[in-house]
Amino acid sequence: MTTQSQDFYSTEDFPSVPKYDVHTHANIPGERLIDFSKSNNFKLLSINLIAPGFPSLDEQLSISAKHLHNHPADFAFAYNFPVDDWEEEDWPTMTTARIEHARAKGAVAVKVWKNIGMELRNTSGQFVMIDHPKFDPVIAYLVRHDIPLIGHLGEPRNCWLPLEEMTVSSDRSYFEAYPQYHMFLHPSYPSYDEQIRARDRLLEKFPELRFVGAHLASLEWSVDELAGRLDRYPNMMVDTAERICHLQHQAVTEWRKVHDFFITYQDRIMYGTDIVDDGNENDESFQKRINAIRQRHWQFFTTADEMEAPKVSGMFRGLHLPRNVVDKIYRTNAEKTFFSR
């Protein structure tokens, strides 16, 4: 074997290399997502979430605790707190108590979702953003206990465009299916820039917060913009969940820029997919689908192959990242952030 081949992985290495998927939703008591993932050397972080089509938060917490008990070396989970009782005066105290309960069950992180900024309103009808002072005691609690906060705040910039102008087909499909989140249809709602600025103000207010920007921190459209935030906020990490197609879209015309971004920020990026197991797919189809997604991503990160992807218009080349960079994105960054806690 040559020195060059030793410095890079190949597609054949995919099943044997230890890896983590830090953004999944194992929403059913059955363990097939865990088992299928383990067959390709993946450990999982599953994220509880109050979202359409998901079980209740209590059910998700119970399911996650069971999975953790059965697979302590291969599974971890994050908790999402409710905001339906936001107007209660003691909401911060109730919320920290909920987080403490989830931590006692094994939660290693907390998630905030786009309902903050897109759905939650105060009694005056104004949208509540993530930098609202009422969140401060909860965020301070996370800082005090060194608990990572995973933030899906805002949406892809495509969300504020008409369907025909969106850059990747997955966004067109999602926002056509969920028009309540398609902000182009809701011009009175906070803008994309307002969502991003609120998140940035939170990080400025709490510089010691261990923050993970889910979905490339909703800056998926520009590695330059994302690099600027990573430079500005040294405790910020990001995951790639459901946004790798946006990197591939950029690689069609700016391959070098995308490649160099991963080299420069190799310690700040974690691999994630946003795979959901809701039980609505037979085992064979589910396994085939998730393996195809992960193998295509592996090809993009590890090889120099000319590629195409279902969600992207145009050919692009794989990033051919060195082995040590791939190990950080797929394993060691996740271990430091979630799995060593």
From TrEMBL:
Gene Ontology CC entries for this record: cytoplasm
Cytoplasm keyword on record: no
MF annotations from Gene Ontology: carboxy-lyase activity; hydrolase activity
Gene3D superfamilies listed in its UniProt record: Metal-dependent hydrolases
Gene Ontology BP, a term: secondary metabolic process
Domain Amidohydrolase-related: 70-338
PANTHER family: 2-AMINO-3-CARBOXYLMUCONATE-6-SEMIALDEHYDE DECARBOXYLASE (PTHR21240), ISO-OROTATE DECARBOXYLASE (EUROFUNG) (PTHR21240:SF28)
Protein name: Amidohydrolase
Organism: Parapedobacter indicus
Lineage summary: Bacteria, Pseudomonadati, Bacteroidota, Sphingobacteriia, Sphingobacteriales
